[in-house]
Amino acid sequence: TTRTTTRTTTRTTTRTTTRLTTRTTTRVANPTTHLPRIVIYSTSFLTGSSAQQWSQIGEQGLKLWQWGTPTATNRPRDRRVVGTVIKGTGLYPDTLAATVYLSSPWITTHGFSNMQVTFTRFLGVAADDLAIVLACPASSAPLCQILWSNGAGTKAVSDKTWTTVTYNVPFGPEIPYVRILFGLGPTKPGPSGVTSGP
User: Does the pTM exceed 0.70?
Assistant: First the structure.
């Protein structure tokens, strides 16, 4: 079973799509030297090779996260994205038993503070389905930190257009590597034919 969409993606409710980004950027500032913000990692997903650096975690055998040119009418010009539903009707599976993540490559963060992640999204997700963004360090402690979620799967999200968002990454300069995870699921069956998104 899948969910439907009028069209809104990582980007209405009741069932829609998760589209992830024209650009994902991790920016940092060093408060000790008061240097301007610098970019330590950035990708536009313009090429397949850049998308291949990202990987899916969970639901083996299900290719949930996809790379390509989105069909949304208001898509950024000449852009590629990675998302759960980037073409066609904008329907994501309503039978995910657990969260399926899209993981960035490991980003070198040693020596950096006040980090932020910025990305462009077009999200539609039902109130009873979970969408979440995590930052995870390459160490056993601290644990992964939630950067954003739709109320732990309790709030519907219905983006009307591509939106750039920025979240703080709460790790200090002692953390050598960090990766960003974008997750969808678990999801629950719902009524078919309900639309979401532009």
Answer: yes
